[in-house]
Design goal:
Elements (H helix, E strand, L loop, with lengths): L3 E7 L11 H13 L1 E11 L7 E5 L2 E9 H20 L10 H18 L8 E5 L6 H7 L5 E5 L7 H4 L5 H4 L8 E4 L2 H15 L8 E4 L2 E7 L6 H11 L3 H9 L4 E6 L8 H14 L7 E6 L8 H21 L7 E4 L5 H10 L2 E4 L8 H9 L7 E5 L12 E3 L4 H12 L3 H17 L2 H12 L14 H7 L3
Parallel strand pairs: 1-2, 1-5, 2-4, 5-6, 6-7, 7-9, 10-11, 10-13, 11-12, 13-14, 14-15
Antiparallel strand pairs: 3-4, 8-9
Helix pairs in contact: 1-16, 2-3, 8-12, 8-13, 9-12, 10-11, 10-14, 12-13
Length: 476
């Protein structure tokens, strides 16, 4: 079996303290099984010229990291990746701040990665590149003569070609994905958008239902929805609900129903729109006043980018307005927390919450939605209110699907979720949980690498939600 080389912007170095994110949980078993390398940025900014790559070896895996100079960090990460690619791939052309300097920095850092990575490569390595930071990597490796199997997975949305072509120099950035053998996406919609781009803008001819001819080979487009460790997370939640932390939080509710939202402070998450919907809920359904508390946990991110400071200010103003208008001496309707919490703590809070609010304006998948479902008590589950623009809506069709731009519609869904009979809650949870098990995280890497290795019989464009399950999900 060929060695696996994973390349991502950040590396999940096992240090015994870091919280394991979804990528880390999914990738590490595959790396341990095959042996290999995880290569990427260390997260550190060098004062001067960065030194050589650093390696940590553990369990048959070499974790290899490089530092970035300040200019590269500013232009590559804060610049092109997060001020141009992130908004455009989330359908927000209006927020993109393009400069040729940042574009140059983006390509320069990708070239820097390639120059350091190739020192560790073997001819038969299978290379798996992750996310929008490193889209040109395959083309650069091909230009340097590397013929390895190369796969790419985009963890965030892929908009239609009408938006992709709004990206200056999209021919150099997006079209560079043609140099991969397999390009994977979260949803059918994302894969179709990219396929349309290849056909309409790049002019590629189809080599099959999900493959295109490119130069002397082909590029395959696949659908691989990222999941969660469904059964393991369910057990964690069942234990965590009895923890001192969760008991203390629930005691402070004084018997009120808990509504929970957990998101990074990012404009794609739709937090201001969600708060507007909660405000409308309190205004329109006065009987719930004093009987519910909405807990919004929102760790700050990318605080040195202006758009994120702006969104923080909007959210803070909305929180103050809602609590000032509806709050009483004995009841605060909305609790807004900027502190990050452990996965265990969140699992216990999810299980305790009558309603989970997950209403991004656009999201590649959104694992909070899946974790909320996995955490529920099957006998007395809570209800997920989910944006139809989250990738998770494709699998979690038994949630209450909403348009996050429609504040009144979301308010009505919150009211419906709070008053939903237990029989309907159980039916919806059962359908959603079954889909989570079907697309469990443990199968994600196996599906992708099986196709990249050329040994999988799975159709990469096959429906991940079969018709019988879709019918169950749409009941009620």
């Amino acid at each position: 079996m060929s060695r696996l080389v994973v390349v991502s912007n950040r590396v999940g170095i096992p240090d015994g303290n870091a919280r394991a994110g979804g990528l880390e949980v999914a990738i590490r078993p595959a790396l341990k099984k095959r042996g290999g390398i995880w290569f990427g940025w260390s997260g550190k900014v060098a004062d001067g010229t960065p030194g050589p790559a650093k390696t940590v070896h553990q369990d048959k895996v070499d974790y290899v990291t490089v530092d970035l100079p300040q200019d590269d960090y500013d232009e590559f990460y804060n610049g092109f990746a997060n001020r141009v690619l992130w908004p455009i791939l989330h359908y927000r052309l209006d927020l993109a701040e393009f400069t040729r300097r940042d574009l140059s920095g983006y390509f320069r850092v990708n070239q820097f990665f390639v120059e350091n990575l190739e020192k560790f490569l073997r001819p038969d390595d299978v290379i798996w590149v992750h996310d929008y930071h490193l889209m040109p990597l395959a083309q650069m490796l091909r230009e340097r003569g590397h013929k390895n199997r190369l796969g790419f997975f985009l963890h965030i949305p892929c908009p239609p070609p009408e938006i992709l072509t709004g990206l200056p120099n999209h021919e150099r950035v997006v079209a560079g994905l043609c140099s991969y053998d397999l390009v994977g996406f979260q949803t059918e919609n994302d894969a179709n958008n990219f396929s349309r781009y290849l056909a309409n803008e790049v002019g590629l001819k189809r080599a099959g239902d999900s493959s295109f001819h490119y130069e002397d080979r082909s590029v395959t487009v696949g659908i691989f929805p990222v999941g969660v460790e469904t059964e393991a997370f369910s057990r964690m939640a069942a234990r965590a609900v009895g923890s001192q932390f969760v008991n203390k939080v629930m005691a402070s509710m004084s018997g009120r129903a808990l509504i929970i939202g957990v998101d990074r402070l990012d404009y794609s998450k739709g937090i201001p729109e969600r708060l507007n919907a909660f405000e409308r809920f309190l205004a329109n359904f006065a009987d719930w006043r004093g009987l519910v508390t909405y807990l919004q946990i929102t760790p700050r991110s990318r605080t040195d980018i202006r758009e994120y400071a702006d969104i923080g200010r909007l959210v803070g103003e909305a929180v103050g307005r809602i609590n000032g208008t509806f709050g009483e001496a004995s009841w605060t309707p909305l609790r807004y927390i900027n502190k990050a919490h452990s996965r265990t703590a969140l699992a216990g809070l999810y299980r305790s919450a009558r309603v989970g609010l997950v209403t991004p304006l656009r999201d590649g998948m959104n694992l909070v939605a899946k974790e909320y479902i996995a955490a529920q008590d099957a006998d007395d589950p809570g209800v997920l209110v989910l944006s139809r623009f989250a990738g998770a809506a494709r699998e979690c069709g038994a949630a209450l699907l909403v348009n996050p731009y429609d504040s009144e519609g979301v308010a009505i869904a919150i009211n419906r979720a709070l008053g939903m009979p237990v029989e309907e809650r159980r039916m919806r949870h059962q359908a959603n949980f079954a889909m989570l098990v079907k697309n469990d995280l443990s199968q994600w890497a196996e599906r992708f690498l099986g196709l990249l290795d050329g040994v999988s019989s799975t159709d990469p464009a096959a429906e991940m939600l079969d018709p019988p399950m879709r019918r169950i999900a749409r009941q009620g």
